[in-house]
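seq:
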Amino acid sequence: MHLQLVPWLAAATLCVTLIQICSSSTLSTTSEADKIASLPGQPKVSFSQYAAYITVDEKQQRALFYYFAKAEADPASKPLVLWLNGGKSI
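struct:
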């Protein structure tokens, strides 16, 4: 695979996973495993939040970390925002 395609593949994998979490009316067991009950120092919140690593290359042992916060009101009608921080340029 051409090296410049790898970041796009990783981003696509992350997008598909987040869309699956977002669009499912009942979360799968994988999503439930990623659900955060509370964070240190965070006051009680009324929205669902998830975080985990998504493996994008098992051979190279590479994974992406995601944090997802579901909208409090009518999450199915809200847009999905994906924020990707920069990294090493290829």
